[in-house]
Design brief:
Elements: H1 2-27, H2 40-43, H3 70-75, H4 82-89, E1 97-110, E2 135-141, H5 148-153, H6 159-172, E3 179-181, E4 187-189, H7 207-216, E5 222-226, E6 244-252, E7 255-262, E8 269-278, E9 289-297, E10 300-308, H8 317-331, H9 355-358, E11 380-386, H10 395-403, H11 407-412, H12 415-421, E12 457-458, H13 468-471, E13 476-477, E14 486-491, E15 497-504, E16 515-526, H14 528-546, E17 553-556, E18 559-566, E19 571-579, E20 585-589, E21 612-615, E22 618-621, E23 626-633, H15 643-646, E24 653-662, E25 667-677, H16 685-688, H17 717-726, H18 745-754, H19 761-764, H20 800-808, H21 813-823, H22 837-846, H23 864-877, H24 888-901, H25 909-915, H26 922-932, H27 935-951, H28 954-960, H29 964-975, H30 995-1020
Parallel strand pairs: 1-2, 10-11, 18-25
Antiparallel strand pairs: 1-16, 2-7, 3-4, 5-6, 6-7, 8-9, 9-10, 11-14, 12-13, 15-16, 17-19, 19-23, 20-22, 20-24, 21-23, 24-25
Helix pairs in contact: 1-8, 4-14, 18-20, 21-24, 21-27, 22-23, 22-24, 23-24, 29-30
Length: about 1050
C-alpha cells in the first residue's frame, strides 16, 4: 500500500509540473470572460459568445484558414494552379457561403448505475417543446455499475439501449409507452410503432436470437451503432419532419453517448463517426475517459464529447481530472475519412443518395474530414459529462452558502472555473452562466443533499415499492461536499454559438441531477454553384494578371525514343527542358491516368510506366536556363519486377504518353516508344510459351555483342581451368543439346505409369502436339506454334516415350537446353551442384533492384558468377547454344535464377497453404499440383523433378554429394513464397519486447520451411515419387 501511495504521489507531482508549464504559457495571454455571479440576462445580451468565456485559448482547427477546410480543399481539387486557389481563398467567405441556424439540446446525466423506472419521464430534462431542437445529444455516465466485471469484461452493453427507449419517448411521444406485466410480475417497456430508436444489430428482436448472439458475440468494453431513418409510421399527431431519429450511439463501460437528429435535418447530415478514449484504471480502462461522436451538418463539423473524469475531493485529485482531460484531447482520434463509408459508423449525405453523388468532387462525399481526426479539429465542439470538479471550500461553508442561495460566492470556489481561469484545463472552452444549485450529491429518490448529518446515510429509490428496487438496491453512501460535477461546455468560432438555456432537472433516479443546455449554432454551407463561379472568376483574374508573364518552355527532343530494350540492361534517354520565357518556370510530370486511382499517397502516383523512371520529376527553371531530364529504362524480373508488364503486349512494344505540366503554362505531351526483346527470365511460364523464338532476334543489338556469348571472358584462365578439372574434359566449343539428350527406357517408364492417373494434365488439357525431337535446343518450336496433329494425348494411347515427349513439348526450349546441358557429359556428378550453385544465383539476385527506380549507379553484374548467369541467359535468349566450357555450377545457378525471376512464386498458393499446416501424401500432393498448375507449369515441374531425381541417383549422388533433404530444401526455398519472421502472423501488432511471441513465430517459420522441403521431396525420391 505504501508503494502504491508513493507512486501516486510521484504521478501527481509529474502531472502538476506539466500543468504548471502550460499554465505559465496561458497566463501571458489576456483573459476574457464574465465573473462568477453575472446573471443570465447579462450573459446572453451580447451575442453568440456572450455567456462566460472560460479561457482565451486559440480557436478550433476549423477557424484558422479557409484553405485548411477539407471541404474547400475538395472543391478546389481541380483548380488549375495554386495561384487560382490562393486567389479564391483571398475572397471573403461570405460571398460563397450560406449560413444556417441549428438549434441544439445537450444533456448530461450520471445515473449511478441505475436502470430507469418504466414510468420515468425525461421531458423535464429533455424539453423540446415547440420543436425548437434540430439535434439532441444526450450523454450518460455510469449506465452500468463500475464493478470489475463491467470494466474489464465489458458487460452491460444493452444498458444504453434501455435509456434510448426513454429518450425516444421524451422526444417523439407526448404520452408514456404502454406498459405490460410480464409473467414474473415485472414491468416491460414497449417501443411504439414509428419509434425513431435504432435497435443495434447485435440486439436481436427475439429471445431466441438474443441467446444465440450472447453465445457467439465476443465481449467488448465498448459498442457503437449508427442510425438510419426508420421506415415505421410517423407517430400520431406529429409532422414527419419533426420526428427525431437516432443517428449514432457509442458506449464504453458506463459512458454512453446517444445522438438524435430531427428527420427534417437528416438530409443535411453526413459523415457520422464515433470513437472512445479510456483513462481509468492503469490509464487506459474504460471506467473513466470519454466517448465521442462527430457529424457534418451542411459543411460544418460538430463534435460531441461525453466524459467521466476522475473523482475525489482530496487535495491533488483535481490534477488527475486535468490529466484525464489532456489525455482525452491528445489520444482522442476519429477513424480515417474512408471509415465513414462503413454503415455502422456513418449515415449518407441524404436518404437514397446515389453512390455517384457521394463520390463526386463537390465536397458532399461522406464526411470529407480530410486529415482532421482530432476531437478539437472541428468547427464546433460540445463537451458534456460528469467532470467531477469540486469546490475548494469546506463542506460546512458550502452547505451554508447553498442554504443562503448565494451561488455567486459558491462559484468563486468552483475548481473548473479556477482551472480554466489559470489556463490549466479546458482552455478556450465556454460555459453558460450557472444559475442552478450543485448537482451532486443527493440522497437517491430525494432532492436533499446527502450527508446533512454527521453519519453516513443510505439512499432511497424513487418508488420504494416498484420492481426497480430489486435492480437498484439501497446502498450506504459516504458524505460528500455538494459540487457542480455535471457540466456542459462548448467551443466554437467567435460569434458562431449562443447558449439560450442552462439548467438542471429534478429527476430522482440517481445521486446526481441531470443538466441540459440549449445552444444555437451557426453552420455554414458552401453554395456549390457560387463556388464554381468564384473559382472561374479567380481563374480569369489570375489569367489576366499573368498573361504577359506566362512561363514558356520547350522540350528537346519532343519524344523519347527508347529503341531496343533488353532484360537487365539499363537504358537512358536524355531530354532537355528549356525555359524560353521571361519568368521562372515550375515544371512537374503528372501521374499517369491509371495511377490516379491508387492509394492516396504521392509515392504511388507514378509519373511513368513501371519499367521507367524520370529524374527529376519536378523542378524550377530560371529564364534562359535549361534542365536535363533523364529517363531510365530498366526491365527486370521477380515479384516486383517489370518484365511481365513489358512483355504484356503481343508485339512487346513499350509505349506511353507522359504529361509534363508547366505551372501556369501549357502542358507538354511526351511520346515514349520502343521495343522490348523479352528474355525467358521474368515472364510467367504461360506467357513464355506464346513468345516467338528466338526471343532476341539475331539482328538485334544484343546478339551483336560478343561479350554476351563468350562466357570464358567473364572469368580468369585459372577459374576456367578449375571448372574444367571439376567436370569431364571437353573442347571449348559451343555445346549442342541435340547431341546428347538421354531418353533411356528407364527414365521414361515411370512417366508412362504416371500418365495413367486421372489427374495427369495431358488428359485434362488440349491435345499436345508431338515433339520434333527428343533433344531440344533454344530455337525449338513451342506448343503454341506447332501445327495441329491428330495424335491423341490420352495416356492410354501413348507409349512411354510418347508420354514423356507430350509433357516435354510444353517445356520452354530454354529450360530443355539447360537440363540437357546438365545431364550431358556427367555434369550432374559435379560436387556441390545446385547447393553451391545457389550462391551464384544469390549473387545474381543481389544485383537485381527490387523495382525500377532503385538507386544504383551501376547495375552491371559485380561478380564473375553473376555475369556468367547473365551470359548464359543472353545466349539462350538469342537462340544460341550454351558453350561447352560453361561451368555446370553457372548453368545450375541460371536455372535457380530463372525461378527467382518469375513474377509469381512457381508453387501455387494452394500448395503453400497446405504446407502451412501439414505435409500431404504423395498422391494428394500430385493431385493438388496437377489441378493447380497450368499445362506449361505442370510440364516444367515434371521436367525439373526428373532432372533432380537423376542428380540424386546413386551413381551421381556419390560424386556430387547431394542429399534428398538438402536438394528438396533448396528448391522449396526457390519455388515457394518467401518466409519472414512474421509469416502467418498477419494482424498481430507485435512489439519488439514480445520476445516469446517473436521466437514462437520464428519457430513456426522453420516448421513451415521443413514442411515445404518435405513436400518437394515427395517428387524427388525416384522410388516414392508419384510422377
Amino acid at each position: 500500500m505504501k508503494s502504491l501511495l508513493g507512486l501516486k504521489a510521484k504521478a501527481q507531482t509529474a502531472i502538476q509540473e506539466q500543468l504548471d508549464r502550460t499554465s505559465a504559457q496561458h497566463k501571458q495571454k489576456p483573459q476574457v470572460g464574465l465573473q462568477p455571479g453575472q446573471d443570465q440576462s447579462e450573459a446572453n445580451s451580447g451575442g453568440a459568445l456572450d455567456s462566460r468565456t472560460l479561457s482565451s485559448d486559440s480557436g478550433s482547427h476549423a477557424e484558422k484558414t479557409a484553405g485548411s477546410d477539407p471541404i474547400i480543399q475538395q472543391l478546389l481539387k481541380n483548380a488549375r494552379s495554386e495561384a487560382v486557389r490562393q486567389e479564391f481563398l483571398s475572397m471573403p467567405k461570405g460571398e460563397y457561403t450560406s449560413k444556417h441556424s441549428i438549434e441544439m439540446l445537450v444533456g448530461t446525466y450520471n445515473v449511478n448505475g441505475r436502470r430507469p423506472p418504466a414510468d420515468l419521464d425525461l421531458r423535464p430534462w429533455l424539453d423540446i417543446s415547440n420543436h425548437t431542437a434540430d439535434i439532441v445529444a444526450v450523454g450518460f455516465q455510469e449506465v452500468v455499475p463500475l464493478n470489475a466485471g463491467n470494466v474489464v469484461m465489458g458487460g452491460g452493453l444493452e444498458a444504453g439501449s434501455v435509456w434510448d427507449m426513454h429518450i425516444d419517448r421524451a422526444l417523439n411521444y407526448p404520452v408514456s409507452y404502454p406498459v405490460k406485466q410480464s409473467s414474473a410480475g415485472s414491468t416491460v417497456e414497449q417501443s411504439p410503432a414509428g419509434s425513431g430508436k435504432l435497435i443495434p444489430e447485435d440486439l436481436a428482436d427475439s429471445e431466441e436470437e438474443d441467446d444465440n448472439a450472447a453465445k457467439e458475440k465476443p465481449t467488448a468494453a465498448s459498442a457503437d451503432v449508427a442510425g438510419r431513418t426508420p421506415s415505421a409510421a410517423v407517430p400520431s399527431g406529429q409532422d414527419a419532419a419533426n420526428v427525431f431519429v437516432q443517428v449514432a450511439a457509442k458506449q464504453m463501460v458506463g459512458m454512453y453517448l446517444s445522438l438524435w437528429v430531427r428527420r427534417g435535418v437528416v438530409p443535411h447530415v453526413r459523415g457520422v463517426q464515433v470513437t472512445s478514449v479510456g483513462t481509468g484504471m492503469m490509464g487506459y480502462l474504460g471506467n473513466k475517459g470519454a466517448v465521442a461522436a462527430r457529424l457534418r451538418v451542411y459543411d460544418s463539423g460538430i463534435c460531441f464529447v461525453c466524459s467521466h473524469l476522475s473523482s475525489g475531493e482530496n487535495e491533488g485529485d483535481e490534477l488527475k481530472r486535468n490529466y484525464d482531460y489532456s489525455e482525452i484531447v491528445r489520444r482522442g482520434q476519429f477513424p480515417p475519412d474512408s471509415a465513414v463509408l462503413d454503415p455502422k459508423t456513418s449515415i449518407s449525405a441524404s436518404p437514397g443518395a446515389d453512390s455517384a453523388s457521394q463520390a463526386s468532387g463537390d465536397g458532399r462525399g461522406p464526411g470529407q474530414w480530410g486529415s482532421q481526426r482530432g476531437l478539437l479539429e472541428n468547427e464546433h465542439a460540445i463537451w458534456m459529462g460528469d467532470l467531477n470538479y469540486r469546490l475548494t471550500i469546506s463542506d460546512d461553508k458550502a452547505r451554508s452558502l447553498i442554504k443562503e442561495s448565494r451561488l455567486d460566492k459558491l462559484l468563486e470556489a468552483d475548481e473548473l472555473i479556477c482551472m480554466v481561469r489559470d489556463g490549466r484545463s479546458f482552455a478556450g472552452w465556454t460555459e453558460g452562466h450557472i444559475s442552478f444549485p450543485p448537482t451532486f450529491k443527493f440522497k437517491r429518490g430525494t432532492s436533499q443533499y446527502l450527508g446533512m448529518g454527521d453519519e453516513d446515510e443510505s439512499d432511497q429509490t424513487e418508488h420504494s415499492g416498484s420492481p426497480d428496487k430489486a435492480q437498484n438496491p439501497p446502498q450506504k453512501e459516504k458524505k460528500r461536499t455538494p459540487a457542480w460535477t455535471d457540466r456542459v461546455l462548448y467551443k466554437s468560432p467567435t460569434g458562431a454559438a449562443k447558449q439560450t438555456h442552462y439548467s438542471s432537472a429534478n429527476l430522482l433516479v440517481s445521486d446526481h441531477k441531470p443538466v441540459s443546455s440549449k445552444l444555437t449554432l451557426a453552420v455554414r454551407e458552401y453554395v456549390r454553384d457560387v463556388v464554381e463561379a468564384a473559382v472561374d472568376t479567380a481563374r480569369r483574374t489570375v489569367d489576366a494578371r499573368e498573361m504577359a508573364a506566362m512561363p514558356r518552355c520547350e522540350l528537346e527532343p519532343t519524344s523519347a525514343e527508347i529503341g531496343e530494350a533488353f532484360y537487365g540492361q539499363e537504358k537512358k534517354v536524355h531530354l532537355i527542358l528549356r525555359n524560353i520565357g521571361q519568368v521562372t518556370a515550375n515544371f512537374q510530370f503528372m501521374p499517369l491516368p491509371g495511377a490516379m486511382f491508387g492509394d492516396d499517397k504521392d509515392k504511388n502516383f507514378r509519373t511513368a510506366p513501371r519499367w521507367a523512371t524520370i529524374e527529376p520529376e519536378q523542378g524550377v527553371i530560371d529564364p534562359g536556363s535549361g534542365q536535363e531530364v533523364l529517363m531510365t529504362i530498366w526491365i527486370n524480373g521477380g515479384i516486383k519486377g517489370t518484365a511481365q508488364l513489358a512483355a504484356a503486349k503481343s508485339d512487346c512494344k513499350l509505349e506511353a504518353i507522359l504529361v509534363l505540366r508547366i505551372q501556369d503554362g501549357n502542358d507538354i505531351f511526351v511520346s515514349v516508344g520502343g521495343k522490348y526483346h523479352p528474355s525467358f527470365f521474368g515472364v510467367a511460364l504461360q506467357r513464355l510459351s506464346t513468345l516467338p523464338r528466338p526471343l532476341v532476334p539475331l539482328t538485334s543489338d544484343l546478339s551483336q555483342q560478343d561479350s554476351g556469348l563468350r562466357i570464358s571472358t567473364a572469368r580468369s584462365s585459372e577459374a576456367n581451368a578449375k571448372a574444367a578439372e571439376e567436370e569431364q574434359p571437353g573442347s571449348a566449343v559451343f555445346y549442342s543439346p541435340s547431341a546428347s539428350q538421354d531418353v533411356s527406357p528407364a527414365s521414361t517408364a515411370h512417366h508412362s505409369q504416371d500418365h495413367s492417373d486421372a489427374h495427369s494434365p495431358v488428359s485434362r488439357h488440349q491435345p499436345s502436339p508431338p515433339s520434333h525431337s527428343a533433344t531440344p535446343s533454344a530455337t525449338d518450336p513451342i506448343p503454341g506454334q506447332q501445327p495441329a496433329t491428330d495424335q491423341p494425348d490420352d495416356p492410354a494411347h501413348l507409349t512411354a516415350p510418347q508420354a514423356q515427349s507430350a509433357v516435354a513439348s510444353h517445356v520452354p526450349p530454354e529450360l530443355r537446353a539447360i537440363t540437357a546441358y546438365l545431364k550431358d557429359k556427367g555434369r550432374l556428378r559435379t560436387p556441390g551442384l545446385f547447393v553451391n550453385s545457389a550462391d551464384a544465383a544469390m549473387l545474381w539476385a543481389m544485383h537485381q533492384p527490387a523495382e525500377v527506380g532503385t538507386p544504383d549507379n551501376n547495375r552491371e553484374p559485380k561478380s564473375g558468377c553473376a555475369l556468367a548467369v547473365r551470359q548464359v541467359r543472353e545466349a539462350l535468349d538469342c537462340g544460341q547454344e550454351i558453350p561447352a566450357s560453361t561451368s555446370a555450377h553457372d548453368v545450375a545457378a541460371t536455372l535457380l535464377a530463372f525461378f527467382a525471376s518469375l513474377p509469381t512464386p512457381f508453387m501455387p498458393p494452394a500448395a503453400a497453404q497446405v504446407c502451412d499446416v501439414c505435409v500431404p501424401s504423395a498422391s494428394a500432393a500430385s493431385s493438388l499440383l496437377a489441378d493447380s498448375l497450368s499445362p506449361v507449369e505442370w510440364a516444367v515441374f515434371r521436367h525439373i523433378s526428373e532432372l533432380l531425381q537423376e542428380a540424386l541417383a546413386q551413381d551421381n549422388s556419390a560424386a556430387n554429394g547431394l542429399t534428398l533433404a538438402g536438394l528438396a530444401a533448396l528448391f522449396a526455398e526457390s519455388w515457394f513464397p518467401g518466409l519472414t519472421p512474421g509469416y502467418g502472423a498477419a494482424g498481430q501488432n507485435l512489439k519488439p519486447e514480445d520476445v516469446a511471441e517473436l521466437q514462437r513465430m520464428a519457430e513456426n517459420v522453420g516448421l513451415i520451411a521443413d514442411r515445404r522441403a518435405a513436400f518437394v521431396a515427395l517428387f524427388l525420391d525416384s522410388d516414392e515419387s508419384p510422377l
